[in-house]
Known about the structure:
By secondary structure, the chain is mainly α. It folds into 4 domains: 198 residues, Leucine-rich Repeat Variant (Alpha Horseshoe), CATH 1.25.10.10; 113 residues, no CATH class; 133 residues, no CATH class; 148 residues, Beta Barrel (Cyclophilin), CATH 2.40.100.10. Helix content is 48%, strand content 6%. It contains 34 helices and 8 strands. β1 and β2 form a beta hairpin. α8 runs antiparallel to α9 and α24 runs parallel beside α26. The longest helix has 23 residues.
Amino acid sequence: MDAQRHRDDRPRAVRLALVLCAASIGVGCGKGEPASVGAADASAPAAVGPASASAARVAALRLAEHRRSAGEVTADDQQSRDVEVRRAAARALSRIGGEASRAGLVRALADEDAAVIALGAFGIGAICKAHEKDSVAALVARALSLDAADPAPAAIDPVLAIARAIGRCSAAESEPTLVAWLAGPRRQAVAAAWGLGDFAASGKRLREETLVALFALAAGSAAAPPLPEALFAVGRLDHVPPSVHARLREVATARLATPGDARVFAVRALGRGGVEAAPELARVLGAASDFSSSERSEAARALKRLGPEGQRALADAIPALAPPSDPVALTGLVGDGLAPLLVALDALEAPGKARKALRDLAALPLPPGAPASIARRIAWIRCSAAKVVVGAEHADVLLARCDPTAAAAGDAADAGAQARGPRAGSIGARALVAVIDRAEIRGPRRRAWLAIARGDDVRAREAAIELLESHAEIDGAPAVLAEALASGVPGVVATAADVIAKQPQRASDDPAAKKPKKARRRKASKDAPVEAVPGASPAVVKALLAAIGDAAGEDDPEVLASVEDAVAALALKEATPRLEELCKSSWPALREHAQRALALLSGGQPTCDPPVGGGEAPPELAAIVVGPQRLTFDTDVGALSVTLDPAVAPVAVTRVVGLARAGFYDGLVVHRVVPGFVSQLGAPRGDGYGGPPGKRPLRCETSPLGFGPLRVGVALSGRDTGSSQIFVTHAAAPHLDGQYAWLGTAEGPWAALVDGDVIRKVAVTDAK
């Protein structure tokens, strides 16, 4: 990461937070922040005092936002003389979404305040479906009245927000409009480049002339400096036409010479540049002194895309990436230099020329008296290497002995974390599941699988249960699924339900039900509801009905939504009354899945609209945190910190800060690390599912703020499903922008974490 770029970006993010502050909490933004939030519109009236009618109206709009009640946002709010009321109204509508918000968001586009315009565009970009053409027309019309030649406002850029909304709408008019903007003033060109990245991410292919224009922008000219951000869109494509591969490689390679947060886009783009890009990517992967750990990790991923040439480059790189086997040297594994090796091992499909190096890695010695943090990293190296070497031989001794944490007692912190996170030996167990997956699961292989599928390691158990979806030869699936559904462990329940939703015949031992799902054509229409699965296991049916009837399940929409899908797949009409209740839920994920399930069960076309008046207000609204808060995590890689600012996402910040003060995060593990991308924590059982007991999920507090390096967000599994899980980005990740609530910034070696690292303690202090 380019330190200077990070310092330059942070003030802009803070300024945007200030612009949204009054719309978020209706009072001052805390210690150490500028007193004025008028940077976006110098002519805006000054914010009024907290006892005024305007402040009360801002608070009412905040409540409407979290109850998801668009009807409470009025035209008077959007025409208020107080800019903070107008911002609060636009922010509420952008987060509530849906048809009820559409007219108000279009009105927001007509405002004179930059923040209101941007929030209106942001909201429109999120609800374009079925209105793509009209939405893009409204966005383009508003853009024509903005002078893109002027400098961007200090706090928020409506031109950027409009361009990204146009890209996300992915209408037929989106691409040509944004391509035309590439030739405009630099501010407009940058916005268009981001918008085209969003357009590409929607599954659309960019035309060849679009790619040529992006390459020209990235290359720069005598009149304009290079714009590496223009390569973002290329990295979002699945395929790039071979006709432009040479130009892509030329431009992306040139951009590798300039350090900065945007250089990672050049690395990602090279993965779409054909097999001839392999040598350059291999250079990046091996150049630890010239490229960041995140960039080198992305290079390893990009090589995986390049087929045999990429595999040869990865195999050639392994010996140089391997750590020395000296016990003293191995104690230095706690650092971000390990990440590129782990990604390369994961990307390697066969040993090739690296067989000896891989066998050495799979037997890497554990230093005497090594702490659990070192044992964990050696386990990741050994098991990742063993998975490549053993192929489909699940009983190979190299795999059986790869995880030293299975035999090690671990340190005191780990011992205290076992009940709330992955067990010792989990790394090896998950590696074993991956190898079991490589051949038919019968005989001894099935016995090994069954031990894990019924075991007490949650992560490994979930991975084993997932194999039921793709291995029809496994006998006894209904019994395993029934046990999983009745386990009460959210992730295990959800995994089993997902298997049934995708392959309902796995819930039956009836031979008539074992035909491939594709051949059975389980479709529903208004005249023909979905067919029941012959001989569905009574134990599975009982467990599903119990799971869907559990009122506490509404605290975890992700799990309950999976159960709804499974109930529909098995055509359990007994669940209809409960599905009708969930159809009226204020949680969108539950309504969406209930509507789909009811349609399958009845053959009709029911609608599950949001409840009139919205849902309940989150308790956090009664005691919103005021001012930025610093959370310091005592971890296996040392002290890590995040600074959370309630200006943008007040309820989410209040939730996280409150949980930290209550000790919720103490003893948890970092359950997800994607090197070069993100570290994630906050799952009670360390498997990515669930949140604190008794806490309802959070409403999404999304905003136009961007996820650059070391930004903090709320992890989700669908709209309004966040709770305690947060993530920290390692590198620029603009594809996350607007999709997740932005909470603040982070400091420290977050990229040095590995899956399973322990959070010993979290301290909360006011950020000065």
